[in-house]
Hints:
Subcellular location: Cell membrane
Main location: membrane
Number of helices: 20
Structural class: mainly alpha
InterPro entries: Lipid_II_flippase_MurJ/MviN, MurJ
Strand content: under 5%
Organism: Microbacterium gilvum
Order of helices and strands: HHHHHHHHHHHHHHHHHHHH
Shape: globular
Number of domains: 2
Number of strands: 0
Membrane topology: Multi-pass membrane protein
Radius of gyration: 23 Å
Amino acid sequence: MSSLGRSSALIAAGTLASRVTGLLRSVVLVSVIGGAYTAAGDAFTNANQLPNNIYMVISTGILTAVLVPQIVKWSARDDGGGSHISKLMTLGAVLLVGVTLVAMALAWPLLWIYSSRFTPDQLALGVLFAYWCLPQIFFYGMFALLGETLNARGVYGPYAWAPIVNNVVSIAGFLVLLGLAGGDQVHVADWQLADGAWNLPKIAALGGVATLGIVAQTAVLVVFWRRTGLSIRPDFRWRGIGLRAVGRLAGWTFLMMLVGQVLSAYQQTLLSTASGSGPASTSWFNAWLVFMLPYSVIVLSIGTPYFTRLSGHAAAGRDDDVRADIGRAVRTLGVLCVLAAAAVIVAAEPAARIFNNSREDALSVAPVLIGFLVGLVPLAVQFVVQRTFYAYGDTRTPFWFTVFQAVVAAALATLSALVFSSDELLPYLAAAIALGQSLSSLAQVVLASWLLRRRLGPVGMGASMAALARFALAALPAAAAGYGVYLLSGGAAGWMLAEKIPAVLGCLVIGAVVAVVYVIALAVLRAPELKAITQLVRGRLRG
C-alpha cells in the first residue's frame, strides 16, 4: 500500500469514526434541546455555532491555504522548522486569546447578527449560552493549528481521530443532562425558573459540556505532538519567519472569511424567521452534519494527502504532475461522492428521523438534507480546484470566486425568503435556502475551473466531467433500487421512520442496495474508474 494510500486510509478511518460518534452526539443533543420545532434548541445551536464559524475559517482558510505550504517549506530547514513553528504557535496562541476575549465581550451583538429575528427571550437565552460556548474559540484554533502542523509533518492520524474524544465527552455529559431534565427541552420557558429568572446552572451545564469536549480533543493533539520530532517553546520573536509574505496571503483568506460569515449570518437571519414554526438553525446544522459525513470521509480523507503531495509538486514547479493529480483526485472523489449522494438522497427521510424525535419532524427536515446533497459532487470538485490555487500560493483568485458564490447564494436565499414567507410555506424555507447554497456551489466550481485552466492550461477537466456523467448514469438505477426498498418497507408510514434505531437500520439497508447496484452499473458501463476504486477499497481494508 502506497504512502498516500496509507495516509488516506488512516484519515478515512479516523474521520469515519469521528463523524459516526458526532452523529451519536447530535442524536443525544436533540433529545435534550428538541428537533425541528425547537426555539430553545435554535438559541443554543446559534450560540454554539459562533466559535464553530471561526474554527471553520482557521481550519479551512488561513491554515490550510497559507500555513500548510509554509510548514512544508520550513520542514526542509536544518532544524526541521522547529524554531519557526515555535514562533508560529506562540503568535497563534496570543491572537486566539485576544479574539476569544473580544468575542465574549461582544457576545450579544455577535449572536444578534445571526439571530436578529429571534424573540427577545430567545435571544437572551442564546446570549447566556454563548458566554459558555465562546471560549471554544481558543481551543478550536489551537486544535486546528496543532492538527494542520501534524498533517504537514506527515502525522495524519491524530487530527482525524481526536474529535472522537470530544464526541465521547459530550455524549456522556448530554446523557447526564438528559437524565436530570427528564425529557425534551423544546420551549424557551423550559430554561427558566418558576419566577421567570433564567436557570443559570442548567444553562452553564449544557454550554460547559459542549466546551469541555473541545478542550479534550485539543489536549489529545498535545499528547501526540512528540511524533513530529519537533520541540517547541514560547517564542515572542516573530520577526524573520516571513510573516509579511504570510500576511499578504492570509489577507485574502481573511477577506474570504468575512464574505463567508456575511453570507452565513444572512442565511441564519432568514432561517431565524422559521424558528419554532418549522426547520430552522438546529435542523439546518443537523442536516449539514449528515451531509458532512460523506464529504469528510471521502473528500477530506482522500483530498488532504493529495493536497500535501500537490503542494510539493507545485513548489518544485512540476506542473504536469499537478495536472495529473487534479485529474486523479477529481475522478477518485467523484466516483465515491456520486454514490454517497444517491444513497443519502434516497435515505433522506430515515436519516432525518435519526436526528428528530418524531416521524413528522423527520419528514419536514429531509428536504433540507436533500438540498445540501445536491452540492456534494460540486463541492468535491471545488475542493481540488481551490487547493490547487493554494498550492501555488494564490489566495486572491479563490477569494474572488468565493465572492461570486456568496452573491449567488445570497440572491437565492433572498428569493427563497420571499417565496416561502407565508405560514403554510415557512416550513420549507430551510430546504429552499439549502438548495440555493448547493446551486451556488455548482456555479462557483464552473467559474473556478475556468480560472484554473487559464492559469495552468488544460487540466483534463473535460475528461473528468465525462467521468462524472458516467457515474451519474450508473447512479440512476442504483437510486431507483434503493427507493424501491424504501417503498417496500412502507415508505413514510413504514418501520424505517418508527424510531431512531430502525431508522439507522433502514439507512444501512438502502445504502447497501444502492452501492451494489451502482457497482454493477459501473461494470456494465465498463467504467475504468471501477478498477481503481476497487483497488483503493481493498487497500483501505488491508490498512
